[in-house]
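queue> pop job 88
queue> type: inverse folding (structure -> sequence)
queue> payload:
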């Protein structure tokens, strides 16, 4: 009987030791997997969240009339867009932001390239939307120009077109400001950069018209 008790005690000790060793091995394996996962994330350019775009595009705005935006200090605001039209639009947008205590947006060439391409595509193919007939999306356009490679980013897009007096930068920015979903993008405090693309013509082939695209964004690299 005494021998049996000794055997049972030894067996119990072995069970405890085996359980302890297995726990250590499991913890080590989990640690190795976590290290490997972090290495994969670094090799792929960061965690999955770094490649996610928060797209907040407003509804398109076409030909809507509204009082002109305050054009003081923005030369060319009340004439048909010329070569400097995109810069005039940025000037007007920043004027609207400053009156509300918001930081001015910096012009970004990549955003401007994406905006020009989309305006030209809408005129050439006769549509007016944030998504092209072939399924090209706002986010895809920004990725195509390399705006947010390897970075976390958020962005918004506004569209407009107009003819005659409704084609001027002041008219289009004012129309955006007087439309709540567009205004929320223009005055979004989180955005830091903007790119504007203006192309002669309209999706409905109207004469004397211009089509506008504005891309607003912020990167965190």
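queue> result:
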């Amino acid at each position: 009987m005494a021998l049996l008790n000794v055997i049972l005690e030894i067996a119990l000790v072995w069970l405890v030791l085996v359980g302890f060793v297995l726990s250590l091995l499991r913890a080590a394996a989990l640690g190795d997997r976590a290290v490997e996962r972090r290495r994969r994330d670094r090799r792929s350019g960061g965690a999955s969240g770094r490649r996610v775009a928060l797209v907040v595009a407003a509804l398109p705005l076409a030909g809507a009339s509204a009082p002109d935006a305050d054009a003081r200090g923005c030369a060319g605001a009340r004439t048909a867009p010329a070569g400097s039209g995109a810069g005039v639009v940025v000037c007007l947008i920043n004027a609207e932001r400053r009156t509300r205590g918001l930081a001015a947006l910096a012009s970004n060439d990549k955003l401007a390239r994406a905006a020009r391409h989309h305006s030209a595509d809408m005129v050439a193919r006769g549509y007016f939307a944030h998504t092209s007939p072939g399924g090209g999306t706002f986010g895809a356009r920004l990725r195509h120009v390399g705006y947010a490679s390897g970075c976390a980013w958020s962005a918004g897009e506004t569209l407009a077109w107009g003819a005659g007096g409704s084609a001027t930068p002041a008219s289009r920015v004012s129309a955006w400001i007087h439309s709540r979903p567009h205004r929320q993008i223009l005055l979004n405090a989180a955005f830091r950069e903007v790119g504007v693309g203006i192309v002669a013509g309209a999706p409905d082939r109207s004469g004397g018209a211009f089509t506008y695209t504005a891309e607003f964004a912020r990167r965190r690299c």
